[in-house]
Amino acid sequence: MSDPDHYAVLGVEPTADPETIREAWRFQLRAFHPDRFSSEQHARAERMAKRVNEAWQVLGEPAARARYDRQRRDAA
After folding, report:
1. pTM for the whole thing?
2. What is the residue extent of each domain of the chain?
3. Chain CA centroid to CA 53, Å
4. How many CB atoms lie within 10 A of CB 9?
5. Fewer CB within 10 Å: N-end or C-end of the chain?
């Protein structure tokens, strides 16, 4: 699977409950918010914040998470 592991991006286990995923998303988004970084690190922070938000879009929506989990199982 060449796509990023959304669980790893958020730093949670695949068995994490929705509230844990939401808390991890908020924590990671604050950690990588581009406004917190100098101009030299701003582009990297933007990329990371984008990955964090992409992970949340998948894992924060129950139907999308179920599809993602099926794809992970099928790829294994």
Report:
1. 0.86
2. 38-76
3. 6
4. 20
5. C
